[in-house]
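User: Modeling request: complex.
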Amino acid sequence: MAEAAKTVHSPLVTYLSMISLLTLCPPFVVLLWYTMVHADGSILRSLDYLRLNGLQGFLSIFPRPSLIACQIIAAFAVFEAALQLLLPGKTVKGPISPAGNQPVYKANGMAAYFITLITYIGLWWFGIFNPTIVYNHLGEIYSALIIGSFVFCILLYIKGHLAPSSTDSGSSGNVIIDFYWGMELYPRIGKHFDIKVFTNCRFGMMSWAVLSVTYCIKQYEQNGKVSDSMLVNTLLMLIYVTKFFWWEAGYWNTMDIAHDRAGFYICWGCLVWVPSVYTSPGMYLVGHPVNLGSQLALSIFFAGILCIYINYDCDRQRQEFRRTNGKCLVWGKAPSKIVATYATTSGETKNSLLLTSGWWGLSRHFHYVPEILGAFFWTVPALFTHFLPYFYVIFLTILLFDRAKRDDDRCKTKYGKYWKTYCDKVPYRIIPGIY
Ligand code: NDP
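Assistant: Request completed. Predicted assembly structure:
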């Protein structure tokens, strides 16, 4: 990953973007929360406030991490870590790493997901814990996460230097790149506790589901009912996260896990950015209960489901194709493919298959189209009074267009002439016929 950081963009752009993200993301999370919860979702109102009150004004709205916020985060993190370690699950092997290692995982994500949601809703139902407490302390929770996750990334950096878990680790020789992109590909505590599975899946993605439910319950407790816009948003986000956990073992074959090292970009992103930015359309709807009417609500809901399904099917198709070594049907026919040869960092030569039919024959990253549209459909129930709920969709579009370029560059380096053949056969990067 550090390699990708050095080659995809010029060094100036690379350093500027890393330093900007390191410094701007934390205050952005606080401003997003403040605008959603205390400024009616209006960017103009927040900007006005900042213009009038300056830095001092910003510092006074920056919530301090409170004891209750730390307790909520600690309880959630310990609960999820315990489920990850203790629940039974099938043993699954990840892809062969650049250094030739093959990580082994326990696939118990779906069970952890259901236990988490049932426990959370059960605690509310039986009057033991009210999720509105989470919403009421959201600012403090985000600020505790911002600081705590920064410390966590420093510890990961130190671990990468002093006690790496595998040979898939190393320094780029630059402290900012190492901290930002990470040192280790598969850091673990002991033999079994995989840190990236925890940060990305069991904390990040799980918090997305838990916070979606929280927003829904908060609106219910505030207004005595849940608006149809909130229902569509919550259900679509929950279906998306359910799809994620259904397919979690497949996720362990993707760029986040198989190529991106554990540093600020991935780990801070999953610990802070996912619970705040990814859930933000729901956060907005709490105080903006739009009524869509059943026809519009259902149309948006089914369009969203279709996008989530197509996104899932793209991932499933690629993984089924790789798992069966190309001996499967793609859209009812034998797949068309390229047999590509590449060398691992230890100099071993290996073969890999590239699918060139089905979704993967439309464009090289077609799966990003339904991913972005799905996010649009769970945001559009907010209608168009404010721009801010759409921040996630716009951020996601930029992220995925950048990711497609990073992935193409990495694959070009890995597969050389075979990748060129793939690009000749499937010329579009994301949108068929356009880009
Ligand atoms: P994937 O890892 O699924 O796909 C890219 C990898 O697949 C490449 O690095 C290459 O790896 C392999 N590959 C590329 N082309 C082919 C081909 N034609 N046939 C077979 N294998 C191929 O991509 P992502 O990790 O980006 O996406 C995974 C999922 O996560 C998607 O659903 C995406 O939408 C979602 N996602 C969501 C994000 C969010 O923030 N909401 C962010 C990023 C992704 P190899 O080296 O093995 O050949």
